[in-house]
Design brief:
This protein has a single domain, classed as Glutamine Phosphoribosylpyrophosphate, subunit 1, domain 1. Helices cover about 35% and strands about 30% of the residues. It contains 5 helices and 12 strands. A hairpin with a 5-residue loop joins strand 7 and strand 8. Helix 1 packs across helix 2. About 35% of the residues are buried. The mean pLDDT is about 90.
């Protein structure tokens, strides 16, 4: 399982993903689920993936391979004129990979399903964020839906819904995401650290704030502990519930 979040802020875009993949409790591996493409001064694109690992790795490999081909041979993510066209390209590639894998003899192509988050900025156009489904279709983030989650979304969603603010600084947005991921890690063993993150500042058109949070990161451990304590204290301060009996 996986947990990834892409979030829109007034100052830019924030991405975070876990790195755990597993085929049972005794077979756990770590794979990076965030890919960043950069043409400094011209475009920055970020892709996060959840679902079948073979599918997601094939999609990323195809996109990277085609970006190195002559423009007249293959459509290239690094030559797409807009983020909308880039999302179309990624969706087409995802659908192509799933269909090709399904031809290998499996009865249900849902075994190869994957869901993607694509975000970034191209040229003078504003940053955009998309959620791409296995069928290749997609939706775009906006005022009413300012963030997307993929993978194991239910445990970390409540904190995002309650605390999200478009005016969050990057530091506070990362803090919010760490709380969301901490809740997910504690509830589901199939999601695990290290956690990769990337903060993209609008109009910078370069990769700047990017990093990884290891399981023993002291700041992450402090956030986890203090958040748990704060919840307990908040519960104690809530109004008492009146119990009735027959």
């Amino acid at each position: 399982m996986t947990y990834c979040v892409g979030m829109m802020l007034r100052s830019g875009l924030v991405f975070m993903s876990d790195t755990r993949t597993n085929a049972g409790l005794d077979n756990i591996s770590t794979f990076k689920k965030m890919t960043i493409w950069e043409d400094p001064g011209e475009r920055v694109l970020t892709l996060m993936s959840a679902g079948n690992l073979a599918t997601t790795q094939a999609v990323v490999s195809l996109l990277e391979e085609r970006s190195k081909q002559p423009e007249d041979r293959e459509p290239s993510l690094m030559k797409a004129p807009s983020m909308f066209q880039a999302a179309c390209m990624v969706g087409d590639t995802l659908r192509e990979v799933i269909q090709d894998l399904a031809k290998g003899g499996q009865r249900a192509d849902s075994n190869f399903d994957a869901t993607l988050i694509l975000g970034g900025q191209i040229g003078d156009s504003p940053p955009r964020l998309f959620l791409i489904y296995p069928a290749g279709n997609f939706i775009e983030a906006g005022t009413d839906t300012p963030f997307f989650q993929i993978g194991e979304i239910k445990y970390g969603r409540p904190i995002l819904v309650r605390a999200y603010d478009p005016d969050l600084t990057f530091a506070n947005a990362l803090k919010l995401l760490l709380v969301s991921f901490d809740s997910t890690l504690k509830a589901n063993l199939s999601v695990g650290a290290p956690l990769d993150y990337f903060c993209y500042r609008t109009d910078s058109l370069k990769v700047d704030t990017v990093g990884r949070v290891e399981p023993d990161n002291p700041e992450f451990q402090a956030i986890s502990t203090q958040w748990g304590n704060a919840l307990k204290q908040a519960l104690d301060t809530l109004p008492d519930v009146t119990l009735t009996s027959n």
